């Protein structure tokens, strides 16, 4: 497959991943599937890892990758393939943006999973309050700790599931953008098709 066609496949794959990440981040604003006061939403949700990192910043490289297949720039210096080579080279920059965006989402998701959600729990014998009952991921290996959170119902599994999806999607996005870096280098060095032809 020619480098432009391969880049288009990567772009087609990145678009739905970006949409899923945006939706996951939006759902995290409704812990346990319920509406709560903004001060009771986990801090890491406000970092917008899924909306900005794996969402908006991933849309740009995806659109660029989608357009590489049809890039028929007229060339330069008498070389008809020069325009396509330059387009493939510039795609590396956008792939780097994608890696940074997805990397940001992965970091935020990792911290959020380790930190755990904010919830209402029994702080001591006489006091209940909203805070973070877990620390250093100690709840991950012991589901009995999840019962510490009284409200919102199911907030721990909600928090863990959505941030885990963001983590996995971010890693996939980083891998796809890294592949495009290699593909872009090959396209810039060899032209759209290393074996010759016009790339169609």
Overview of this protein structure:
- Belongs to the L6 tetraspanin family.
- The chain crosses the membrane at residues 12-33, 45-66, 86-107, 156-179.
- The chain is mainly alpha-helical and 200 residues long.
- The chain has one domain (3-190).
- 57% of the residues lie in helices and 4% in strands.
- The protein has four helices and two strands.
- It has helices spanning 3-27, 49-68, 82-115, 155-190; strands at residues 119-122, 128-131.
- It has a two-stranded antiparallel sheet.
- Helix 3 packs antiparallel against helix 4 (155-190).
- It is elongated, with a radius of gyration of 22 Å.
- The N and C termini lie close together (10 Å).
Approximately what portion of the residues adopt beta-strand conformation?
under 5%
Q: Report, as a whole number of angstroms, the end-to-end distance.
A: 10 Å
Query: Structural class given helices, strands, pairing?
Result: mainly alpha
| Number of strand segments | 2
Main location: membrane
Membrane topology: Multi-pass membrane protein
Subcellular location: Membrane
Keywords: Membrane, Transmembrane, Transmembrane helix
Topology:
Elements: H1 3-27, H2 49-68, H3 82-115, E1 119-122, E2 128-131, H4 155-190
Antiparallel strand pairs: 1-2
Comma- or semicolon-separated keywords:
200 residues; mainly alpha; 4 helices; 57% helix; disordered C terminus; transmembrane helix; Transmembrane 4 L six family member 4; membrane; L6_membrane; transmembrane
